[in-house]
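Submission sheet (multi-component)
Chains listed below:
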Amino acid sequence: MTIRVAKPGFFTTVQDLGRYGYAHLGISPAGAADSLSFRIANLLVGNEGNAPALEMTLLGATLEFEASAVVAITGANCEGRVGQERVPGNAAFEVPAGAVLQCGSTITGARSYLAVQGGLDVPLVMGSASTFAAARFGGFQGRRLQKGDVLPVRKHDALHVRALRPGAVDRLYGKGPLRVTKGAQQDWFSPDAFEKLCSITYVVSEQSDRTGLRLKGEAMQPRERAELLTDGIPLGAIQVPQDGQPIILFVDQQTTGGYPKIANVIAVDMHRVGQLRPRDEVRFAEVSIADAVQALREQAEWMRTIFIY
Amino acid sequence: MRIIPASDSSLLVVFGNTISPALNQRVIALFRAIQSRRDPRIRNLHPAYASLLIDFDPLRMTHDELTAIVQQLGIDVSVTVEKTAEVVTIPVCYDAEFGPDLGDVARHGGLSAEEVIRLHSAPTYLVYFLGFSPGFVYLGGLPEVLHTPRLATPRPSIAGGSVGIAGSQTGVYPVDSPGGWNLIGRTPWRMFDPEGTPPTRLQPGDCMKFAPIDRDTFDKLHGGAESRLA
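Outcome: structure written.
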């Protein structure tokens, strides 16, 4: 069973939940930018949460199915259609043999996920199916999909599809500020800098991608201390270069860097970063590490309650 | 040693704020000690010049638990510093075709081209860490007379394997990429290969040397069994 790419969309890649254990060789995890919606798509079709699936950005792909397949689309609503008929979001459905699934533009949110029962059959590189496009490896031939690509689907036995409780994912992305903890070099900035970061409304710049989200807003005061010695960068670190405009480092980020980090987006909110579009507004609010971990624990528990079957 | 929570899922262990082999040896010792524990709760390790960032699963481990592990290991690291026995030798062709900026590096240091090659291939360099991009090594030990400011305008594309100098640093571009380093040569060996085990030729804490080769040898080695990692 294969899927042929008739139109690749804006930036469509094969991902899983990331490639861990190689940061000391300069290799960042990559993986789904919105790992929650990614997992939900896989679970809906009966896969394990980590099965290789498609991440589509802003404009979805048009795909021709050689044989019938059970698929699910989650994340940003991209108004998928088979022929004239709209397909459901956040639910498993069958695409008939020979049919064309057409995904459109997202109106809100940046990324949609398309999981296929069985999972896409791509070779694992360092144990992961994730595409690391900047370094040109992983996923499908180390790159975003192009017209004419043929994606094999793993051979599999029939799997039990799942369904979400009505309204289960309505508040998945929230409306509030992104929650942050203080960064490792928070004290390199002026005493009120962190407070200021949490008071400014930023706008996501067009120069944002999976390596990082550049924000535009009132500039932070440049720090007066000498250059920071290069050190490791955690996922979601907010670094401030000398122009005073913060950058949220994301899944394809550099593993080390020399800019001081004022704050860090908490793990439980990282899937929301993956749905930010250029020109979206972003605000930050401080939480303690204890509260951040508690929220992550609650999210993990919530994930276990959202399916009816 | 300072231990700072860098995020809800990571801990930064800082040994100092200078570039020195002694500080870096402590980073490497802690890195290796944690790596050898194979603790499934620890997801990623980011060694750097004088710090180690530890990324972990906060649902399975707390910052306090990890801090205790680091402190317990830290006692050992401050007294025993493991030495890497093996020196990895990387062949480099310093011909003008591969090293278009070798003349500038020579002029900047008041040296001849031959002296630049001799001085660059003389030291045993320490691999402080890998970072920035896959397989990119941060090396210590470049002779001061070779320190040369980076190019005013970066090149849009540099071939993988290119050997360069920027300020006090020397290194090898692992894959084709843009960059502003002064290029002085190229290795026929792959420094990064995602299919390799391990995928990089050098590891944090390794010692390495550059060995000058002529163009014929470059062509012979390029693409040969030894040049590959997979």
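Remark: Chain B has two domains: 2-79, 87-227.
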